Amino acid sequence: MAKVDIPFDTYYTYDEMTAHLQALAAAHPKLAKLTSLTKTLRGRDVWLMEITNPDTGPALEKPGYYIDAQIHAEEHATSATALYGIWYLLTNYGTDEEVTRLVDTQVIYVLPRINPDGAELSLVHPYHPWCGNGRFLPGEDRIEGLIPQDINGDGYIVNMRVPDPLGEWKKSERDPRLMVQREPGEEGGEYFRIYPEGLIRDYDGVHVRIEQQEDGNMNRNFPINWSPREYGAGAYPFSEPEAMAMGRLVLDHPNICGMCAYHTHGGIILRPSMMKYDADMSPRDLALYKDLGNVGTRLTGYPVISTYEDFTPDKTKARHGSLKDWVYEEMGIICFSTELWDLERTAGVDKKGFMDLGPRDSETQQKVFDWVLKNVGEKGFRDWEAFNHPQLGPVEVGGMVYIWSYRNPPGKLLQEICHNNTLFNLRHAAAAPQVKVDRLSVEALGADLFKITAVVANHGYLPTNLSDVAVENGVAKPVTIALDLDNASLVINPQRQELGNLAGRNERKFTYSNWGPQWSATTKKVEWLVRANGPGARVTAVAQSEKGGTHRVSETLA
Ligand SMILES: [Zn+2]
Q: What pTM was computed for the model?
């Protein structure tokens, strides 16, 4: 099999990424299917790579695992990680046991760049700090006030420091390139205001107005707890074509049982709930999220935390309309969103908590500044450059390049991040329920009658219902067993029977105790009485689980 070499120490434009995906699909025509999920508002294809071995059965008859990346435009490391996952699965199939087993028994759906329009704005010069899709272009999303743009033509949109006695900022004593906050009561120095680099539309000569962007946040566009008040939520749930297509993908593939949505805000694995305290979640669901998440922590080093308890600073403002919430709270699918990059911890800052949006002290800023200068260089920090601003007069343009510092790791750290997180994807995927006909026995009773016994078992870590939420919502479909007959007739018991849910290994966390959670069956037995109608009589037991796959075993009636 031809090996496709892709360096994972850099970020790819849309055309470059597309070429890599097409090369991978061409080199692995049996295992990989590259299709366009939808067209964006600016006419780009959102690529979907589906990976499975079709020789072992159709994709929809196998447990599905879903990976998505770059719903947020400027989170480029997410796309690199998803592309790496595709490359890793295809390249190591046939040599790596874990990869081969997964591709043979399951199907993996990867969306390596959900938001290519927004991503391109943020990835090519000038790097626009951008979150949304292509509905608005930079400048179109604000009516008046400051419009961020590259005014000094260096290919970067950073900050302007404007001398101003009202200023909240001053130059650091250690390094005049670093701006630190002026203290309360501090007077008599040289002070600055800091604004995003740009020009001001309809400037009144006094107040530099900055309108909140309209560019959008597609991870608030899903139909769960949706609110028009949430920044970037869209006009209505699924108003954005990319979010709509993601929703359709999930609904059209009911075999999906595990999901990972990639982001870059802080070196953590986020789990549900997004709306309530852990104490209000199903204890069994919480336990399996923690156990699976701990595998992720071992492989990536990232802690696994509750989105609501640890990542929502204002508990009265739970997040609205997010993908993870939608798929778990509505469908019971086990979904994590992994945030791939924490600049501050990497720079050695002793951070408390995970969602601290408060101001940073000068020591923290210095550590981050030193780290970025050393590890990212001028792509991460632009030295201040004098500029005669047409509206504000003499200013300086420079400072931290948000996209290439806080938002994404430097290329040299990328491959390890991609690799470790892909390993967690593989383990999470392999935790799926796996329903199999373990035994199909035929006992001749005389007079052309046969007793048929089928044993159906769930071999997976997860139960066939995935979660208690799926049961509570009435969306968990029962496992079924059917006996297909060739030249034979059924005498006793229905041809198709419902077996309910089959438990997974996650239920038996302890040896048996009367005090602990009680156990349910992982394995069930079904019997039929069948009459052979002549030579070639044959039975096929078909076990079917929406999440745990379809498995068939046949026997000839002697
Ligand atoms: Zn994000």
A: 0.96
Centre of ligand 1 from the C-alpha of residue 407, in Å:
9
Mind listing the pLDDT tens digit for each residue in 133-176? 989 988 888 889 999 999 999 999 999 999 999 999 999 999 99
How far apart CA 430 and CA 461 sit, in angstroms, is: 8
Report the pLDDT averaged over residues 178-204. 96
Q: How far away, in angstroms, is 265 Cα from ligand 1 center?
A: 6
CA proximity to 249, closest of 549, 483, 36, 532:
36
Distance 315 CA to ligand 1 centre (A): 20
Question: What distance lies between CA 186 and its chain's CA centroid?
Answer: 45
Centre of ligand 1 from the C-alpha of residue 172, in Å = 31
Query: Mean per-residue pLDDT for 336-346?
Result: 96
For the segment 419-433, what is each residue's pLDDT rounded down to a tens digit? 999 999 999 999 999
Angle between helices 283-300 and 411-430 (to 10 degrees): 140
- On average, the pLDDT of the chain sits at 95
Spell out the SS3 assignment of 90-102.
HHHCCCCHHHHHH
In the reported structure, the alpha carbon of residue 278 is separated from the centroid of ligand 1 by a whole-number distance in angstroms of 23
Round to whole Å and give the CA distance between 291 and 276: 19
Q: Quick one: DSSP state of residue 24?
A: H
Output the CA 217–ligand 1 centroid distance in Å: 9
Question: Ligand 1: distance of its center to the CA of 283 in Å?
Answer: 28
Closest CA to 358 of 186, 181, 510: 181
Quick one: pLDDT at residue 558?
74
Going by C-alpha positions, the residue among 308, 303, 305 that lies closest to residue 325 is: 308
> Between 137 and 88, where is the model more confident?
88
Alpha carbon distance 297, 558 (integer Å): 53
Q: How far is the centre of ligand 1, averaged over its atoms, from the C-alpha of 241 (Å)?
A: 18
Q: What is the pLDDT of residue 2?
A: 62
CA of 281 to the centre of ligand 1 (A): 24
CB within 8 Å of 104: residues ≥ 6 apart? 52, 53, 56
- pLDDT tens digits along 439-477: 999 999 998 999 999 999 999 999 999 999 999 999 999
Find the 75 Cα to ligand 1 centroid distance in Å.
Answer: 6
pLDDT at 355 over 80: no
- List the one residue out of 202, 208, 205 whose CA is nearest residue 143: 202
Q: How far is the CA of 452 from the centre of ligand 1 (A)?
A: 53
User: What confidence tens digit (pLDDT) does each residue in 529-541 have?
Assistant: 999 999 999 999 9
Query: Which positions ≥6 away from 72 have C-beta within 8 Å?
Result: 78, 115, 118, 131, 217, 218, 219, 263, 264
Cα(72) to centroid of ligand 1, in Å?
5
Residue 297 burial (C-beta neighbours within 10 Å; 0-12, 13-18, 19+): middle
Q: What is the pLDDT of residue 358?
A: 76
Residues 6+ apart with CB under 8 A from 228: none
Residue 484 Cα, ligand 1 centroid: separation in angstroms? Answer: 48
